[in-house]
């Protein structure tokens, strides 16, 4: 059985000298088995590591696991031996492709459930579903690059989550703590009530030989100590009193911290005035930690730390900050349920207390994987109660019941069996019973104490509860796929089913007229990885066509179909309409990734206390949803592209025979109705949609003219703004104070900035930054395929850009025929 090593960091006296000088060393406490560990909800942290690509997420995670005792040796992304990047594609490319979950202890009593997410924009769905189940985030930033494009995206995606920022790569040439902190404030906190709090700041030391200062550790603002690391010994930390060079910066940082905290925390104000007698140096570390924790949980402050993960600097303070400042599951946001009238609150013992029922266990399935040995496995987050192996579980999203097999705690590419998963935990479900019973986004309900206690729950309330599903962005690229021979068709279809079950941001469309199958994804790299998995992992013998843009169609007019009746007491009537014409008096059900919805009017005939039909309402709705998806996927009349942004409304007068045995007949009838309604619409009521991207460019000022000419001419772009890139630190009129008068946060100057006035040297950031412009535009995806080489030519290789999906927009008339001809 897999076991975990646990370390405690403790201070060891160094002998003569300062009373607080010493060395932190790892003390072996023995092994701790997670299957028998007692989990205390207040001491659980569910966190996600999010950042721009190459900011150091996986490197930081690897050091966390080492210092927690999970790893005996530190892995490296470049050599392909990290624990969380365990897929062959990840190790060969040196990037994170899918999120990896792992649990580990810290400081003996805390349990950290961590999800390491990808940084590449093509895998943004991995970030979205991780954010669905975590309680807080650690944002990693590159100290050289500052706030990058993907950092802005993940910050917006996690807007409501409490955060810690870790400014990484402080050892690199051109690193700037000052610039990165102010970049954070300017882009994310200006105009908001959220403010940064510097937990530590960089400590530089000048070696005996050489003239350049070397980053060696951090200054602890809470405790007033310097922490330095030895690069050759990752377990060695030296704690010392502050030297004269650091003392002034420390005093100003601590004063700024207390002023920031006291704006929100009346208890700290009272402590400062009474206990500390108005002296910043006398405010206790305990009071500061308590205040930072309280305000971090409320998302009013963001603790900021720094380090260099590759050099093993600053990771232990980051781990301490995670358990000290980020919320436990009983302090985090409550899950959003489909029924707002059901009372939900936190109980310190069982997690979420739903409908005041202590026995109900609610879990959310957020990811599905296929293990070559164990088969299908489902990642779940437990929100309330306890989940036991062998329990009978009800899937409220599908209306199915099944029995659970073994439960596991994930550890990246491996896992550990457990008997029970408690509230606040992230676990894995296994067994043959889940093969066709759970999908990403499903809500699972069971009894915490009884193996089969579902009968004790309220059928109309508790068994219909669902956690709101994960939002899936629409794919923007597609590639045709076909079997090499007819005998390979079945294996290709099975492999595609496995692929899209694991990654819901991939989708399959089929053209009924041509028989062509198209695999759709979020980007070129996304599809490249999917193709690699199909051939090498799933052993599909297939051929691929050329990469193409994923177009959609939509309707511009509502179409109604008269009531359908037959001799078997079936009765349905429906309408298909653009989303802009939706009604608020209907129950709404999302239909996959194309922004389509099913609207169900209330049916009073079946609103009795006793359900009389042989099939459940959930089964009926699921059958109608399946019909809607099939009908809308068949496509429109312009080019047979799937329909986007449509709603199908089922009127409330539908009836079914009492002796109906299964949902297949419902599926057949409603599908034919939907297809007929769409066929009745004339061609001129269909319009073509294309993916439009947000384009952000950073280019030299001298190249702005030619780049703009290319964008507005050849690229059909709409220019949104042209701005100067961030002002250099040395030209800031008040370089160490934020420019927001309501938030005067002190940020220590960089040691390199101080040296400029002495040595005459200039940072590369200072040399070029005033000469660059940021252009933001909206541009059709079709027009920026292979844009990298064009921009390189226009800017002599000095320009860079980032694209992000914006929306599906109507194709203009002057481009419509050109696109249809190309297709």
Give a brief description.
The protein has 823 residues and is an alpha+beta fold. α12 packs parallel to α13 (664-680).
What does this structure look like?
The protein is α+β, with helices and mostly antiparallel strands. It folds into 5 domains: 316 residues, 3-Layer(aba) Sandwich (Rossmann fold), CATH 3.40.50; 121 residues, Elongation Factor Tu (Ef-tu), domain 3; 73 residues, Elongation Factor G (Translational Gtpase), domain 3 (Alpha-Beta Plaits, 2-Layer Sandwich), CATH 3.30.70.870; 123 residues, Ribosomal Protein S5, domain 2; 132 residues, Alpha-Beta Plaits (2-Layer Sandwich). The strands form 8 sheets. It has an 8-stranded antiparallel beta sheet. Strand 11 and strand 12 form a beta hairpin. The radius of gyration is 29 Å and the shape is globular. The two termini are 56 Å apart. GO terms for molecular function: GTP binding; GTPase activity. Belongs to the TRAFAC class translation factor GTPase superfamily. Classic translation factor GTPase family. EF-G/EF-2 subfamily. Keywords: GTP-binding, Mitochondrion, Nucleotide-binding, Protein biosynthesis, Transit peptide. Its main location: mitochondrion. Pfam families: EFG_C, EFG_III, GTP_EFTU, GTP_EFTU_D2.
């Amino acid at each position: 059985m897999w076991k975990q090593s646990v370390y405690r960091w403790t201070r060891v006296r160094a002998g003569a000298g300062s009373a607080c000088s010493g060395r932190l060393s790892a003390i072996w406490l023995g092994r701790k088995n997670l299957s028998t560990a007692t989990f205390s909800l207040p001491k659980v942290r569910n966190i996600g590591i999010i950042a721009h690509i190459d900011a150091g997420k996986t490197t930081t995670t690897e050091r966390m696991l080492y210092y927690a005792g999970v790893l005996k040796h530190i892995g490296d992304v470049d050599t392909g031996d990290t624990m969380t990047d365990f897929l062959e594609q990840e190790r060969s490319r040196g990037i994170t492709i899918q999120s990896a979950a792992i649990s580990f202890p810290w400081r003996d009593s805390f349990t950290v459930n961590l999800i390491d997410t990808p940084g590449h924009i093509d895998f943004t769905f991995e970030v979205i579903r991780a954010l669905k189940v975590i309680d807080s985030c650690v944002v990693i930033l590159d100290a050289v690059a500052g706030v990058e494009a993907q950092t802005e995206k993940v910050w917006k995606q996690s807007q409501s989550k409490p955060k810690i920022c870790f400014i990484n790569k402080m050892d690199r040439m051109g690193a700037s703590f000052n610039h990165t902190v102010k970049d954070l404030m300017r882009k994310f906190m200006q105009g908001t009530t959220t403010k940064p709090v510097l937990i530590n700041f960089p400590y530089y030391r000048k070696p005996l030989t050489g003239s350049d200062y070397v980053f060696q550790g951090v200054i602890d603002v809470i405790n007033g100590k310097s922490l330095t690391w030895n690069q050759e010994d990752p377990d060695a930390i030296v704690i010392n009193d502050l030297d004269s060079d650091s003392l002034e910066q420390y005093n100003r940082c601590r004063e700024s911290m207390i002023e920031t905290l006291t704006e929100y925390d009346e208890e700290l104000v009272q402590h400062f005035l009474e206990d500390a007698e108005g002296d910043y140096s006398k405010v206790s570390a305990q009071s500061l930690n308590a205040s930072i924790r309280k305000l971090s949980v409320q998302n009013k402050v963001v603790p900021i730390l720094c380090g260099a993960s590759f050099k093993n600097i600053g990771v232990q303070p980051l781990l301490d900050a995670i358990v000290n400042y980020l919320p436990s599951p009983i302090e985090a946001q409550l899950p959003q349920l489909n029924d707002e009238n059901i009372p939900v609150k936190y109980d310190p013992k069982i997690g979420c207390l739903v409908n005041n029922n202590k026995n109900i266990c609610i879990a959310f399935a957020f990811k599905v994987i296929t293990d070559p040995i164990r088969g299908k496995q489902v990642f779940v987050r437990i929100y309330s109660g306890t989940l036991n192996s062998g329990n009978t579980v009800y899937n409220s999203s599908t209306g199915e019941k099944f029995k659970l097999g073994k439960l596991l705690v994930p550890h990246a590419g491996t896992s550990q069996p457990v008997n029970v998963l408690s509230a606040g935990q992230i676990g894995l479900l296994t067994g043959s019973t889940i093969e066709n019973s759970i999908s990403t986004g499903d809500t699972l309900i069971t009894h915490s104490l009884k193996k089969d206690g579902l009968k004790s729950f309220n059928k109309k309330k508790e068994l219909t509860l669902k956690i709101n599903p994960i939002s899936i962005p629409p794919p923007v690229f597609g590639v045709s796929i076909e079997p090499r021979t007819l005998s390979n068709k079945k294996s290709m279809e099975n492999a595609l089913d496995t692929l899209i079950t694991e990654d819901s941001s991939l989708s399959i469309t089929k053209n009924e007229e041509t028989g062509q199958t198209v695999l759709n994804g979020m980007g070129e790299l996304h599809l490249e990885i999917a193709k690699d998995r199909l051939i090498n992992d799933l052993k599909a013998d297939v051929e691929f066509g050329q990469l193409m843009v994923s177009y959609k169609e939509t309707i511009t007019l509502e179409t109604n179909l008269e009531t359908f009746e037959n001799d078997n007491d079936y009765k349905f009537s429906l309408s298909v309409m653009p989303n802009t014409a939706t009604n608020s008096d209907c129950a709404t059900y999302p239909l996959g990734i194309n922004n389509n919805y099913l609207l169900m009017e209330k049916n009073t005939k079946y609103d009795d206390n006793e359900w009389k039909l042989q099939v459940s309402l959930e089964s009926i709705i699921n059958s109608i949803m399946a019909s809607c998806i099939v009908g809308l996927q068949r496509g429109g009349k312009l080019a047979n592209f799937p329909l986007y942004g449509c709603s199908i409304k089922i009127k409330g007068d539908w009836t079914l025979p009492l002796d109906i045995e299964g949902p297949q007949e419902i599926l057949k009838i409603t599908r034919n109705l939907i297809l007929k309604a769409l066929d009745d619409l004339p061609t001129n009521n269909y319009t073509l949609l294309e993916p439009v991207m947000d384009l952000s460019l950073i280019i030299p000022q001298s190249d702005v003219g030619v780049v703009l000419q290319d964008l507005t001419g050849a690229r059909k772009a709409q220019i949104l703004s042209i701005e100067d890139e961030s002002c250099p630190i040395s030209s800031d009129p008040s370089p160490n104070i934020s420019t927001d008068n309501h938030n005067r946060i002190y940020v220590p100057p960089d040691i390199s900035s101080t040296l400029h006035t002495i040595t005459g040297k200039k940072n590369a950031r200072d040399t070029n930054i005033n000469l660059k412009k940021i252009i933001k535009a909206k541009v059709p995806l079709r027009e920026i395929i292979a844009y990298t080489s064009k921009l390189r030519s226009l800017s002599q290789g000095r320009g860079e850009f980032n694209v992000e999906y914006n929306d599906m927009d109507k194709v203009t008339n002057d481009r419509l025929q050109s696109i249809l001809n190309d297709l």
